[in-house]
Amino acid sequence: MKKNLPKVAFVCVHNSCRSQIAEALGKHLASEVFESYSAGTEIKSEINRDAVRLMKELYQIDMEKTQYSKLLSSIPNVDIVITMGCNVQCPSIPCEYRQDWGLEDPTGKKDLEFKKVIQEIHRKILDLAKWIENDQLQKNMKKI
Fold first, then answer.
1. Domain range spanning residue 14?
2. Number of domains making up the chain
3. pLDDT by residue (tens digit) across 62-102?
């Protein structure tokens, strides 16, 4: 991994489903652009079983081997905070940029709904990577 990449935190209340998917897809799709972390204000004992199963099926990513549910205090300081859309007041986390993705929680829903959320996270990860690349290019141009 390159040094000095922006750090992105994907935040959701329990850090068990959407934020875990976003961390995994960030690492899978954009590790050359930013470092991915996920965390929550509370934790669950395990990552959502459907998320684990579908990420293995769709991307061959085994989140249970590389990730675990963690609190906000367990991740490093970050540059960008992405909240998943938990419809609760998220705690203030110091960062340069914050965005809410407003994603429905697919927990307890059918695979089709889960896959729609995963596809939306995939798209948003790619958009975030493009935005970061453009932002970094702009910052580097100002230095010249």
1. 7-143
2. 1
3. 999 999 999 999 999 999 999 998 766 666 788 899 999 99
CATH number at residue 111: 3.40.50.2300
Digit-coded pLDDT (tens) for 57-72 = 999 999 999 999 999 9
CA angle 14, 17, 18 (to 5 degrees): 100
pTM of the shown model: 0.91
Tokens linked to 29: 């799709």
* Tokens 């994907």, located at residue: 10
The mean pLDDT value of the chain amounts to: 90
Rounded to whole angstroms, the Cα distance separating 93 from 128 reads 19
Q: Residue 18: inside a domain, yes or no?
A: yes
Q: Which position has the token pair 């922006």? A: 6
Amino acid (1-letter code) at residue 1: M
**DSSP 8-class letter at 62:** -
